[in-house]
Amino acid sequence: HHLNIVEGKMQYLYDEQGKRYLDCFGGIVTVSCGHCHPDIVKAVQEQTKLLQHTTTIYLHHAIVEFAEALASKMPGNLKVVYFVNSGTEANELAMLMARLYSGNLGMVALRNGYHGGSAGTIGLTGLQTWKYPIPQGEIHHVMNPDPYRGAFGSDAAAYAREVEEHINFGSSGRVGGFIAETFQGVGGTVELAPGYLKSVYDTVRKAGGVCIADEVQSGFGRTGSNYWGFQTQDVIPDIVTMAKGIGNGLPLGAVVTTPEIASVMAQKIQFNTFGGNPVCSAGGLAVLKVLDKEKRQAHCADIGAHLVERLKSLQQKHEIIGDVRGRGLMLGVELVTDRTEKTPAKAETAVLFEKLKDLGVLVGKGGLHGNVFRIKPPMCFSKDDADFLVDAMDYAMSGF
Ligand code: PMP
């Protein structure tokens, strides 16, 4: 049966019967600080009482303060911020900028990536599950640098060569841009082979393209080691897109780019009715402050290390666990019926998912075959919560 969740408090959710669930998925990596975090509720309430909305043709201090705070988190010349209402809108705008700036239409994206479901971004998405059959433009889906399932294992150089060949043999030799999540979310928490983005960014820029990092899931310190996912690959993108965790549940997205790239937007009018409205901006600014004040990046590193250690020992015990991966509180547990063949344990994952729910633990499911547990809780997740999750998984898997 379907859950009917009526209340949330930090990392816990409650159904209409009052049953408590440990939220290990945070509304799809969206509730970054915790459900109904008091500081964010307060910021939203205060702004709501004062002024909810006018139009972005008027100035408002909330949008400026939020944009400045966000830009201050960015390296290099990534200083211009656009606010939208979702990840899809952010990627749509990023793709538009890449095409205008480069003068090329073709886009390069990864197989197994997810970037949205609108007419434009559905083409970037590289999972058939989400791709309605409509014309999707010139999109080149290159091999996924997936260390567990990818054809070249962790050999980043081999995957990067394939991108170069794809551009040379499958396009005019020029491309508009390249987009990748730095940790694939919907695709099942896949951390790209180390060194991959550095070589591919070089290749794409040589072909005239703009490099876009989709940080919708991996940003804001969730990986523990870095504030942004792209920093784990030691690159600076030309455009960064964000959504989900940026708003802790508010409908909010952002695109950050360089003044040079942003200047292409001046040829027409770029307008978004609700993008950067006072309420979402006040909430978004409160999110950034909470993450700093509560030192959430360091916390994600601590709890994530503990969780990975416990999940790896669970893997020793249960044959069904084929892979444990990720960083910080951006983790994936891939289930297989045969470790050598890596046969996706699709049906088993669905059964375990329900068992965990009955035990009061909500995880996410991902990957093309739905055989990966995605563990991406609100960042206030504690060590006790981590132990409870692993104990529940152990108990549920013991029946197999
Ligand atoms: N990019 C990534 C990496 C995502 O995970 C998602 C949503 N699952 C999107 C973009 C699209 O975001 P939205 O659903 O807010 O449009």
TrEMBL record:
One of its GO terms (cellular component) is mitochondrion. PROSITE patterns: AA_TRANSFER_CLASS_3. It comes from the Eukaryota. It catalyses: glyoxylate + L-alanine = glycine + pyruvate. This is alanine--glyoxylate transaminase. Its EC number is 2.6.1.44. Homotetramer. Its main location: mitochondrion. One of its GO terms (biological process) is L-alanine catabolic process, by transamination. GO terms for molecular function: alanine-glyoxylate transaminase activity; pyridoxal phosphate binding. It is found in: Mitochondrion. SUPFAM superfamilies: PLP-dependent transferases. Its cofactor is pyridoxal 5'-phosphate.
